[in-house]
Fold:
Amino acid sequence: MSRIDDTLRELRSLDSFAALPNTLTRLDPRAKILATFFYIAVVVSFDRYTILALLPLAVYPVILAALGDVPPSLIARKLLIASPFALMIGIFNPLLDRAPLVDLFGMDIAAGWVSFASILLRFALTVSAALLLVATTGFHRVCAGLNQLGVPRILTTQLLFLFRYAEVLAGEASRMGTARELRACGRRRLNLGVYAGLLGHLLLRALERAQRIHLAMLARGFDGEMRGPHQLAWRRTDMFFLVLCAACFALARSIDLPRALGHILLGALP
Amino acid sequence: MSRHLIEARGLTYRYPDGTLALSDISFRIGHGEAVAVIGGNGAGKSTLLLHLNGSLQSGAGEVRVADLPVGNATLTQIRNAVGMLFQDPDDQLFMGSVFDDVAFGPRNLGLPESEVAGRVNDALATVGARHLAGRPPYRLSGGEKRAVAIAGVIAMAPSILVLDEPSDGLDPAARRRLINLLRSFSHTRIVATHDLDLVLDLCSRVLVMNRGRIEADGKPQAIFTDTELLARCQLEPPLSWQRRS
Ligand SMILES: Nc1ncnc2c1ncn2[C@@H]1O[C@H](COP(=O)(O)OP(=O)(O)OP(=O)(O)O)[C@@H](O)[C@H]1O
Ligand SMILES: [Mg+2]
Structure:
């Protein structure tokens, strides 16, 4: 039970980095959102067997994490949590696509393995970029930025609810987990029946609490629109950030940097 | 003046699972009164309070606030007039920071951002929580959460305050501040509480609930000396009285 709790709590701990004072959190959310979208578009646009050419793009999340004071280990943990999805998508490639593609130190590597690795790499790059966007901006400001960029309010409000209710679920799970542990007298394993019961109970409690939260929101005049303070101000630094990011991504897309580097190095040899 | 009036007539409510939580509740609370709703656990206090801003609406009976019947057509007006503090502050706090959370109500009223900021700062200062403004609400202690939730309600400047267990979990200083704050309001105040000393300090009238009914309605002195009534409703005289005798 506390595993669910930890997972969900991490989601919310991500948000807390947005309050840190640094260059990245001060940027307009729109600049970061657009940069992230552009980044993701560039990463997914590569050919399915690409690995090396993608590597320079890994610099972006690394720099973002450093500027935003977000510990890389946190992002890594979250990637790990989400990785089963990527594994599921790519796992059959090695079985289906057996044609030898690369020759690595005399070993033939099947095309399927290469595309599998490429999927994992792309997954890691895009998801960490998205996570860092949320971590350095804050969920509420991301939604405000999306609004300003023309995403309908009804959608961003739904996103905010999703975020809020994830917290609710985490809270309920942790309370129930503690209550169970206190009375389990040190027995760690749960039999399946108890577990199913707990889960059902958790769902009911979360639903009920969600209902009460909604009531409390209505009591304070909520009418379906989330109003923020978020008067976003587009400054020169935002423009600079966006243009710089876009230029770098475009560069990484248009020339295969590792290969070019190899050519230069090897080209010096006769 | 009738802005501050609140009235229930023959209110009866059954939860969807069949629990009869209120039966035939009637009262009328006038301008500027401070009324306590007391009673044992499960007596129906929270359920009654939820009716006062239309969070729950029952089949039988009606509630009128400021001469408006509580119904779907009047909900917006009712909810702007009635400030409601829920029993569990976790239900009320959900924004990313304390400031934004307290600002949630005023922003929904459509106030300009400069006035929102003024109201938020005033409300936070009133409950002694100015220093919490930048913190995320889910990281606060229980009592801090309650103080912030109270600020969220008073920032909307309602003309009627409905509070469910407002002193629960507050430390003595915060509790005293709350009592002084509530005493200083000229609004109509309705407080459900187990804190009978708060009732003595604050309220001029007490509604005693038991199993969904109003058992007694009168002055605190009269209620708290009726030992037979108190025993029947799972209550005791306030602690400060017990010491005296
Ligand atoms: N959501 C619900 N569904 C079904 N029954 C409920 C629900 N909420 C409360 N009840 C029942 O309605 C009755 C009144 O509950 P209520 O919460 O109003 O009591 P209360 O006087 O506020 O108690 P407390 O002092 O413990 O807060 C209780 O018997 C309770 O079990
Ligand atoms: Mg209650």
